[in-house]
Design a protein that fits this description.
118 residues, mainly alpha, YheA-like fold, 5 helices
């Protein structure tokens, strides 16, 4: 079995974890709710607009950041969005653990030392 085959198996195994299933369930619930979709879309649109401004050389002012933080706070008051974010965070933690084990298997220890070209 090649390394690529093992990676494919690992990806499939990850989709069978409780963390992944909870994240998918929470994402589907969030996607079915019009208010949650609007909050997420509005936040993403504002974030992208600020990124475009920045890429064109404009300075992002503190008032812009305040507005973005306010929108994020409003978004996180929605229970479906909050549930999704918590589920995604748990899955991200699992991926971090998996990556740590891969690094450990490569002889990089638990720290994932970058000093060895990694």
């Amino acid at each position: 079995m090649s390394v690529i085959d093992k990676a494919l198996d690992l990806g499939k195994a990850l989709t069978e974890t409780d963390e992944y299933k909870q994240m998918q369930k929470a994402e589907a619930a969030m996607g079915q709710d019009a208010e949650a979709r609007k909050l997420v879309t509005d936040f993403q649109n504002l974030h992208k607009a600020y990124q475009r401004m920045q890429s064109m050389g404009h300075k992002i002012e503190e008032e812009h950041m305040d507005k973005l933080r306010e929108m994020h706070g409003r978004m996180m008051t929605n229970s479906l969005i909050k549930e999704y974010e918590e589920a995604r965070s748990k899955f991200d933690n699992l991926l971090t653990e998996v990556n740590s084990k891969i690094n450990q298997g490569m002889g990089q220890g638990q720290e994932g030392s970058c000093g060895n070209g990694g």
